[in-house]
Amino acid sequence: MITGHAHDGAGVGKVEGFTVFVPLAVQGETVRARITQVKKTYAKAVLEEIVSAHPDRTRPLCPVYEQCGGCQLQHLSYEMQLKQKRQQVMDHFMRIGGMTDVVIHPVLGMDEPWRYRNKAQVPFGWINGRAVAGFYASGSHEIVDMESCLIQHSANDQAVAKVKELARKLKIPIYDEVKHRGVLRHVMVRTGYHTGEMMVVLVTNGEHLPHKKELVRELVDSLPQLKSVMQNINTKRTNVVLGEKSRVLWGENVIHDKIGDVVFAISPHSFFQVNPVQTKVLYDQVVRYAQLSGEETVIDAYCGIGTIALYLAKKARRVYGVEIVPQAIQDAKENAGLNHMNHVHFEVGRAEEVMPRWLREGIRPDVIVVDPPRKGCGPATLDAAVGMGPERLVYVSCNSATLARDAKYLKERGYQVTEVQPVDMFPHTGHVECVACFVKKEEN
Ligand code: SAH
């Protein structure tokens, strides 16, 4: 009997008191599963038979869903996925945060939860002497050939298919990761959702790319939205997709996209949210909780390329952003220039160091936005935030477990979470994003 779900969407059940994880099984179902791995406190199993199926179970649309590690929830109706994600957030607030009175709204889902990704990253490899490109099979490094990915923008799908076709036709040596030989390692494609501009990045093991001219000409002839063809050189034995060096083979070195009316330049290395439709939904929720009038000072901690900072900047007097990755701050500054915003100040550094310094320097924001990685903020950042005494703190989180932990910490220091709005940024996967609104409690 499956009694719950893990954070990645896998079903969780107990056998004689021992916890067993069963991917693809659904809460409420009785299933037969085969144990494949036993650890100290839990076991992993594969689903063999569904004895009683959940009424919301559906047939996955993708033909390779069960082999691919990309999606985890396609076996559930979209409505059920959203319910499950909300339940997960509620459970975390109750179990970890010790809070039962927080308003957790229904998850804001997509009207059309397919083909939402603006970035494709596809590895090339060999299977039985045949060049393939697709995805790594779940939990392994074996590449499965694939024609189409249903959560990918269809223009990206077409571009990947074209590169694959040309690589075969022109006999471009495909990289073999075991022997560390061959040339073409990955293709990355990015499409601007609003602008339609497309970038193709060919990742190669070395400077030399055979048939470069022909390859580029054919890409340009067959992909009308193409604005940029880049070569990225990665000669390391690594799973990291991009190497440090990129060069333009044709067109521009960046493409542009918009979130609301803020423009962003995107290069091969730039971090840019992958679901542009839901990014706007997420940021609009941040705007609602921030309640800016145009007079406020705002901090955006863990700001990436400054997307939230710039999105809020039109309604603020001054905005500060801090981020650990220097290249991201470089992008953030360029994007501020692109949007003619000179009241936004970006700094490279660790939030847990820069925030306390800003506190000492006397910066007193009216609103603080944080958007930390999965491990959450931690005490140093939160203590500094509390010390600055903002009216409101808006917490964007990709992990409701650490959000709930930090909510408890903030509550003990006078900041009460009033409501939480989950947003579905990654339909069909186990991820759930939340925006939480904290307000300073009145001192009596
Ligand atoms: N707000 C951005 C990015 C959020 S992702 C957006 O919406 O696009 C979280 C960011 O935190 C990443 O860019 C990561 O590089 C950064 N980060 C991770 N640890 C950090 C730390 N200790 N201090 C500051 N930034 C950090």
Automatic annotation (TrEMBL):
Q: Which residues form the signal peptide?
A: none
The GO terms describing molecular function are: 4 iron, 4 sulfur cluster binding; rRNA (uridine-C5-)-methyltransferase activity
InterPro entries to which the protein is assigned, alphabetical? MeTrfase_TrmA_AS, MeTrfase_TrmA_CS, NA-bd_OB-fold, SAM-dependent_MTases_sf, TRAM_dom, U5_MeTrfase_fam
According to its UniProt record, the EC number is 2.1.1.190
Q: Which UniProt keywords apply?
A: 4Fe-4S, Iron, Iron-sulfur, Metal-binding, Methyltransferase, S-adenosyl-L-methionine, Transferase
Q: Which GO BP annotation is one of this protein's? A: rRNA base methylation
The record places the active site at C398
Q: Which SUPFAM superfamilies match?
A: Nucleic acid-binding proteins, S-adenosyl-L-methionine-dependent methyltransferases
Report the residue ranges that make up the TRAM domain in this protein. 1-49
Annotated S-adenosyl-L-methionine binding lies at Q273, Y302, E323, D371
Q: What are the TM regions of this chain, as residue ranges? A: none
Database matches in Pfam families: TRAM, tRNA_U5-meth_tr
Similarity comment: Belongs to the class I-like SAM-binding methyltransferase superfamily. RNA M5U methyltransferase family.
Could you identify this protein by its name? 23S rRNA (Uracil(1939)-C(5))-methyltransferase RlmD
List the source organism: Thermoactinomyces daqus
From which lineage does this chain's organism come?
Bacteria, Bacillati, Bacillota, Bacilli, Bacillales
Report which gene this protein is encoded by. Answer: rlmD
